[in-house]
Specification:
- This protein is α+β, with helices and mostly antiparallel strands.
- Helices cover about 30% and strands about 15% of the residues.
- The strands form three sheets. Strands 3, 4, 5 and 6 form a four-stranded antiparallel beta sheet that branches.
- Helix 1 packs across helix 4.
- It is flat and about 70 Å long.
- The N and C termini lie far apart (about 90 Å).
């Protein structure tokens, strides 16, 4: 190793211990050549370290001394086995360490993926105190002040017919959400009602939930929290729409819409007259069970009806 190269290395080592030392004073660095020989890197990494130190030394000499930011960079780099005379805020040259040569290390080529379970950051806007608009995220304006007129009440309380109601395979009956929207449009008119979010969307590993307020003719009618399950991250968007519809149906209970669906005697009559129980087999798992369907309907995929019950098919 030449004395000039050792001089560069010694200067770096001395700089870490005495930040006020100027690199331009070569005579002051000669006294530390012997110490640099003892601290010199191993033969396997000596050439790379000295080459980097020489380049950085020349860059530092143009300034005469290193700034405090550069000194912090030097101290950090020395612990990793390399030196850098550049400030920490600037991008440094690629390191020769194994971690820097790992594939897909460029953040531009591999952007971080946001976890939907952390939430969607869609908290409702907070209006100014002097705003003339009603802040439906916090206000209960108009709730319970007066009843709607007779025409609206008749549209909301119109009895539900058996033909409007559907049944789930487990025997739970329900009114499709589009029928709720038709009832609200008939009662208040399109544009005369709406759903205002009152909270931020909460996203868990299997479900999304959010609180909504039903507003009709400028009055708060009801508040309810909707929920919807999902099975993959790609289904979150669809689940958000289902969550909104679920909140709307719950708000409609306060208006008396489809109240028959919570009447036990009405439910029993519907199941007896308009549904039937059938034995089915799952097309994929081959498991057999009993489900509910409307009379005249056939089980939908993946279920296949077993005409002879559980004993069909030689079971």
């Amino acid at each position: 190793m030449s004395s000039n190269r050792l001089l560069h290395v010694a200067g770096k080592l001395e700089l870490l211990e005495r930040p006020s030392l100027k690199l331009g004073s070569r005579s002051s660095l000669r006294n530390y050549v012997s110490r640099a020989q003892q601290r010199a890197p191993s033969s396997s990494s000596r050439s790379a370290t000295i080459s980097s130190a020489s380049r950085n030394d020349r860059a530092a000499r143009q300034q005469g001394w290193l700034s405090s930011t550069q000194l912090r960079s030097l101290r950090h780099a020395s612990s990793a086995g390399t030196f850098s005379a550049r400030p920490a805020s600037t991008s440094s040259a690629p390191s020769s360490s194994p971690s820097s040569s790992a594939p897909n290390s460029d953040p531009k080529s591999d952007p971080p993926i946001q976890n939907v379970a952390d939430g969607l950051s869609d908290e409702p806007l907070t209006l100014d105190e002097g705003s003339q608009q009603v802040d439906w995220a916090r206000s209960f304006n108009g709730l319970g002040t007066r009843p709607f007129n007779k025409e609206i009440v008749d549209a909301l309380l119109q009895p539900v017919t058996f033909e409007d109601v559907e049944v789930k395979p487990d025997g739970i009956i329900y009114l499709p959400e589009i029928r709720y929207r038709r009832i609200l449009n008939k009662a208040f008119g399109p544009g005369g009602w709406g759903l205002a979010p009152r909270t931020e969307t909460i996203v868990t590993n299997k479900m999304v939930t959010r609180e909504y307020a039903l507003v009709a003719h400028g009055r708060l009618v009801s508040v309810a929290r909707g929920e919807q399950d999902y099975f993959s991250p790609e289904g979150v968007t669809t689940a958000l729409e289902g969550c909104k519809s679920n909140a709307m149906m719950r708000c409609c209970k306060d208006l008396g819409v489809a109240s028959e669906l919570w009447d036990p005697r009405w439910i029993s009559k519907f199941l007896k007259e308009k549904t039937r129980e059938v034995f089915v087999e799952h097309a994929m798992t081959k498991k057999k069970k009993k489900i509910w369907v409307r009379q005249g309907d056939s089980p939908k995929y993946p279920f296949k009806e077993l005409k002879g019950g559980f004993g069909a098919g030689g079971v």
